[in-house]
What we know:
Blueprint (H helix, E strand, L loop, with lengths): L9 E5 L3 H12 L3 E5 L4 H11 L4 E2 L2 H5 L3 E4 L11 H4 L3 E4 L5 H4 L3 H5 L4 H8 L4 E4 L23 E6 L2 H14 L2 E6 L20 H16 L1
Parallel strand pairs: 1-2, 1-4, 2-3, 4-5, 5-6, 7-8
Antiparallel strand pairs: 6-7
Amino acid sequence: MTSSPSQPRTIGILGAGRVGTAVARQAVQAGYEVKVATAKPAEEIAMIVDIITPGAQAVDAAEAAASDLVVAAVPMHKFRTLDPAALAGRTVVDTMNYWAPTDGEIAELEADPRSTSEVVQDFLRGSSVVKTLNHIGYKDLEPLARPAGAPERRALALAGDDEAARAAVGTFLDRLGFDPVDAGPLAAGRAFQPDTPIFATTHSAARMTELLSEACALTAR
């Protein structure tokens, strides 16, 4: 059974790049216990975590993977470095984007008609993958966060095949300072991948809902 508590308390961040550290800082600000890991031993990243993400804890990847929610913030071309066994039974937030000009073409993604998150879900078969946080720039994550009900609060879409996992991730997004908009199954994540009207643009929850509906209508044709 996938672990997807409706009120997650611990957040594991796999990846200490710009996205991972921005999410970590905002999660600390929101009151979560945050654990950051990379492929390196915890002691090798402890100093940089203390400096860049004060309040977060540097841990080994296995410990981060045991958190209530796990944020995958590695480059898309490295998604197979994630450990399916360690992440089995966990809710995994997929923040990754496929950037062929930067990462080079990934043959399996070029040939696969599914969304990238569906490919990730197939790899992490024992986990429940939820796509979100990929369509906001890491530089915007902290300055654009707003309390619930605040004017001009930005919405973030999320998609996943497990309803309980989506609810847990929605709670997480809300506490980070954004209005979560549930797009439904993981395949709907295609609507906010790169080169879509939603990607890297700011929308209210109402407008985000409209854009997702329009995208789903186009896909159904």
